[in-house]
Amino acid sequence: MYVGRSYKIVDFALWSRRSVIYMVVVSGLAVAAYRLPGIAGFSVPWSVVLVLGTTVSLVAGFKNSQVFTRSSDALQAFTQITASSRLWSNFCRDFLDAPTARQLIYRHIAWMTALRFSLRRPMPWESMARAANIEYRRRYRIHEDASSIADELRPLLAEQAEDVLKSPQPAIALLELQSVQVNALFKDTKLPPQIYGELTKLIRDFHDQQARCDRIKNNPYPRQYAIVSSMFVMIFCTLLPFGVVPVFADMGKLGGALGSIAIWLTIPFSTLLGWAYMSLDQVGESSANPFEGNANDVPISQICRDIEIELRSGLGEAGLPKPLMPVNDIAT
C-alpha cells in the first residue's frame, strides 16, 4: 500500500510508459495513412469514436468500482483480525495461566503467519507477472519472498510445527488446534463458561475472516468483465487517432501559424487521451487482487507484524521483532 502523500508523476509515467509508446506508434500510423497516396484521407468517423469512448468510460468505471470494493473488503477483514487478536490476547492473559496463555497466543501468531503466506501465493490471473509490475516491485520488498512458512512456524509452534506443515491448509489446522485446546481447558474447568463462550466466538470470527480473505484470493474479479473492459479500451485507443487526425488536418487547411504541421498534433493529443484510458485500465487491473503484493495492495505483512509485536509485548517479552517499515513509501 502506498503510504506517501502522492505518487510522483515521473514514477507513474515510467510505470505506464508502454501505453504511451503504443499510442505514439498508432498515432503515427494514423497520420501516415491519412497522407499516404492511394488511401489519402483515410479516417474513422468521429461519431463512432465518440460512442465507443462513452461505452469504454462506463465499462472502465464499473470495473474500477468493483475493484475498489474488493480492496475495501480485504482491508476490512484484516482490520477485524486486528481487533479480534487483541481480544484473544486479553482473554488468554487474564483468565489462563502464563504458559497456557503463551501457547494460545503464539499459536494465534502462527495462524496469522500461515494465513499471510497462503494469501501471497501466486495465482494465474494475478498481474504481478506483468512487466510494468515486475519493474516497479524492485522499489520495495515483500517479506514472504525472503522467508518461508516453515522457518517462521517452527519457532512459534515447537513440536507441533511439523504436523501443521504437513496439512494442506496450515491456517485451518491451527484454528482446529486452538479449538481443541480451548475445549479441553473448559472440560478441565480451567476456563470459566463465559470466557469459553467468548474464545469460541473469536475462533469462529477468525474462521469467518479467513473465509473472506480466501474468497477474494481464490476468486478473481470476473474475467468476462475484465477482458471486455481491457478489450474495449484497446479498441478505443487504437481507433482514437484515426478519428482525431481529420480534425487536425482540417485545422491545417485554415492556414495560420500551424499550417501543414497541424496534422502532426494528432500524435501528442491522441497519445494523451489514450494514455489516460489505458492507465485507468492498468490501475484497475493491478488493484484487482489486493493480496498479491502490488504497490497498492493491503499491507498484510506489516499488519501481522504489528499485531505480533503487540501480542508478545503483552506477554512481557523482550527482544521483540522490528516493525516492517515502508520502503520508498510502500508498505507491504
Jot down its keywords.
332 residues, elongated, mainly alpha, single chain, 12 helices
Descriptive notes:
- The protein is mainly α and 332 residues long.
- It has one domain (9-314).
- It has helices at 9-15, 17-35, 46-95, 98-120, 131-136, 149-157, 161-166, 170-187, 193-218, 223-253, 266-286, 300-314.
- The protein is elongated, with a radius of gyration of 27 Å.
- The protein starts with 8 loop residues before the first helix and ends in an 18-residue tail after the last helix.
- The mean pLDDT is 88.
Strand content: under 5%
Q: What's the count of strands?
A: 0
Question: Percent helix among the residues?
Answer: 55-70%
Individual helix count? 12
Q: Compute the gyration radius: what is it? A: 27 Å
Q: How is the biggest beta sheet arranged?
A: none
Give the overall shape: elongated
Number of domains: 1
Which stretches are low in confidence, meaning pLDDT under 50 for 5 or more residues running? Answer: none
Summed over residues and divided by their number, the pLDDT gives a mean of 88
Order of helices and strands: HHHHHHHHHHHH
Specify the structural class.
mainly alpha
Cα-to-Cα separation, first versus last residue: 6 Å
Structure described in brief:
By secondary structure, the chain is mainly alpha-helical.
Task: List strands and helices in order, with pairings.
Blueprint: H1 9-15, H2 17-35, H3 46-95, H4 98-120, H5 131-136, H6 149-157, H7 161-166, H8 170-187, H9 193-218, H10 223-253, H11 266-286, H12 300-314
